[in-house]
Write a structure and sequence with these properties.
The chain contains 12 helices and 14 strands. It is an alpha/beta fold. The protein has 3 domains: about 50 residues; about 190 residues, Rossmann fold; about 140 residues, Response regulator (Rossmann fold, 3-Layer(aba) Sandwich), CATH 3.40.50.2300. The chain has a 7-stranded mixed beta sheet with strand order 7-6-8-9-10-13-14. Helix 2 crosses helix 11, helix 8 packs parallel to helix 9 and helix 11 crosses helix 12. It is globular.
Length: about 400
């Protein structure tokens, strides 16, 4: 009897195994289908969410030797984006900022520009800051037909040759000429000048413009020294400058080097007046130079606290409440640059070409963009006609100089 039971149960077990196999196979198929449908649903949801946002890149030196510029650029952009999204976004869509770090180096800027331009969801770029970085990105952006709007690059060639590159501040030929005229007209005891310049696109261009204008104004250039941005010891050049005994030393460079130059100059016994270009304009200068910064004059595209600019005052208060520190010039220019891109999208549409066409149409004061840094409109090259201001370090703080040339 036992033997027959075994004979009878063997087919039964085989049948059970077969049935279980079918069931497992069906379960596996169902699981695969479930995963496919889930993935498809997830992708559809992600695409739907992405369709609710408008992407704009912000490129600048967020790390590296001039990261203080990048910090202010980022915060200025973030504040503007927060305000825009808090007021309903851009045509009911959220503004999403994509931050890209070029470290202030042209080679890295080329990589950043390629990455931005290849992402077709990004409609425009606020940046770059350094002139060498804007110049490096220019052909890439032009080729891919995406706007770069710089809130900081002043080299004269930045916008030339591309109808996709704009800036919302002056050029170095204007800044150099303005600085020379200011020194001649206001600092009347100055007769002789030494030029100390960063040996890059920004420093060289500004040095050339300033020298030409200073000589025309009757100022004697008694020394002309270059330095490399990666250098921290300037004693050799300062020794040469000291021997020329200038009344004033003009620095065409950035705050990180200018702070060290000021300290080392005072340590070496140089008593000349210092005058810096707008690259020196950063609160970080005060930290690096300490007391040696006192007395320096600096050109700048904008000053917070000027009378009659209530909107700028509102932004300054909002910025400090949001980030716990006061905004600087570059935060203000970036704030306006983001606003200009948003206005272009609202008025012309969500495409790279529409943004370019809108900015290209701002060709007169009547058509210009009114921001906290003033009225912005462009010439045929995408360059901007805006004034320069002068600030001075007094008792360890930046203050507006007593005399301003705004004509």
């Amino acid at each position: 009897m036992k033997q027959q039971t075994l004979i009878e149960t063997a087919p039964y077990r085989a049948l059970c195994r077969l049935e279980i196999g079918h069931i497992c196979s069906a379960l596996r198929s169902s699981l695969v289908l479930l995963l496919i449908f889930s993935a498809a649903f997830l992708l559809t949801a992600q695409e739907a969410e992405a369709a609710k946002t408008i992407k704009v890149a912000v490129a600048g030196p967020f790390t590296g030797s001039v990261a203080a510029f990048g910090e202010m650029i980022k915060k200025g952009a973030q504040l503007r984006a927060k305000e825009i999204n808090g007021n309903g976004g851009i045509n009911s869509k959220e503004l999403e900022l994509i931050f890209e770090d070029d470290t202030g180096k042209d080679k890295e800027a080329s990589l950043v520009a390629t990455r931005i331009a290849s992402n077709k969801k990004i409609l425009a770029v606020v940046g770059h800051f350094n002139s060498s970085c804007s110049l490096a990105g220019k052909p890439i952006y032009k080729r891919n037909r995406i706007v770069e709007l710089s809130p900081g690059s002043t080299n004269v060639n930045v916008c030339k040759g591309s109808d996709y590159t704009f800036r919302n501040l002056y050029r170095d030929d204007f800044q150099g000429s303005f600085s020379a005229k200011y020194i001649k007209g206001v600092l009347t005891d100055v007769k002789t000048v030494a030029v100390f310049f960063d040996n890059d696109d920004y420093g060289r261009g500004l040095r050339d413009s300033f020298k030409q204008s200073a000589e025309k104004a009757g100022l004697a250039i008694v020394a002309d020294e270059a330095y490399d941005r990666d250098t921290t010891d300037y004693k050799a050049q300062l020794t040469k400058i000291k021997s020329a005994n200038p009344d004033l030393i003009f620095i065409a460079g950035l705050y990180s080097q200018a702070g060290l130059i000021l300290s080392q100059a005072r340590e070496s016994g140089i008593t000349a007046q210092f005058f810096g270009a707008d690259g020196v304009d950063s609160p970080k200068l005060l930290e690096i130079a300490g007391e040696a910064a006192n007395g320096i004059y600096i050109t700048t595209p904008f000053i917070f606290g000027l009378e009659g600019n209530e909107e700028a005052q509102r932004v300054a208060i909002a910025f400090e409440q949001e980030f716990g520190k006061a905004p600087d010039t570059w935060a203000a220019l970036t704030y306006d640059a983001v606003g200009m891109i948003v206005e272009a999208i609202e008025k012309r549409g969500e495409s790279r070409k529409a943004i370019r066409d809108h900015l290209g149409s701002l060709t007169s004061p009547e058509k210009g963009y009114q921001g906290i840094t003033g009225l912005t409109y462009f010439d045929e090259n995408g360059d901007c006609l805006k004034p320069a201001y002068v600030k001075q370090v007094v008792n360890g703080k930046f203050v507006a100089a007593k005399v301003q040339f705004l004509d």
